[in-house]
Batch of 2 targets.
Target 1
Amino acid sequence: MKHIDKLYHFTAGVIIYIFSSIILNNWLSMIPVIVIGAGKELYDLYSGKGTPDWWDFIWTIFGGIFVLLLTI
């Protein structure tokens, strides 16, 4: 089940990047991916409603990087 969670984070990074790229250029589209990914993990940490995991953050960024590499 842990691998499925990482796939969800990767997919979230892809989706955030795609929507961001409508407004921002390729490189700047990574900013929302990083901010939202970090925000989600910080929310999990401080709210106690989730399990904070830095690997989740990294996999979210990997999703954005994946699309970035496809578009440059």
Note: The helical segments are 2-20, 30-47, 54-71.
Target 2
Amino acid sequence: MSDFSRELAFKQDLFLGEIWSDRFFSLIQKKLDIKNAETVLHFNAGTGRNCFALAEHSRNTLQITGICETPQHFQIAQDKAAALKSPIRFQAEPVTDRTFDIVIADASLSRPEHLPTLLSQISAALRSDGTFFLIAAASGSFAEIFSLLWEVTAEDGGSNSGVIESLIAALPKLDSLIDDAKNADLRKIESEVATEIFEYERADDFAQSPLFADFLLPQWLSDFSCDELAVIRKKISRLIEKEYGDLPFRFQVKAAVISGKRG
């Protein structure tokens, strides 16, 4: 097991729960009706935070399965379940047996190009007329960060600014998410977009935050070395101080929630 990957899984569990995961899961919970459900599957369950919250909310009446993104997430989730004596089942492989009443997928940290595959996996796990919920960062998200990144990467003559333009273009529009869901044999689709605002008091609070430094930036600029990313974070911090002064730095995520049934 990679020590670095395990460290990232722990950081996701320790630092992203309240500030990130809980926000997006709450948007799904507003629409979630578990009265007649027996089985629930959660894709991208991380280290199990939302699964445990759902079990508590249902008073352990649901049979919950969590699909973890990596072996490191899976091991931590398993250890937590054992410590809590929880009946939640965690695994690292998707299921395809069409037995679940409800399937939830948190794609808020997923790469946009993976969403069609995720929707197909959702469809493959749902029983006939089962209900799904997916949340993802949609077009218009991270505009404030991308503006800073474009300015920073343009300093080298603009050779990397095209990367930022590609990131902006890759974020899915709501219509395309709905089309991908329909192509995965999902029907009766409902959708909404909620704006979530994230605020940091100081430039370094943002630039060195686990959310940006360990998750968003390395995913967006995956071809950059660790040293290059460290330089970018320093430049971002200086640019925020220059442009925002003593004001907090804020950025928005357009959280798209789509739900529906399997056709």
Note: Residues 156 and 173 are 31 Å apart (CA to CA).
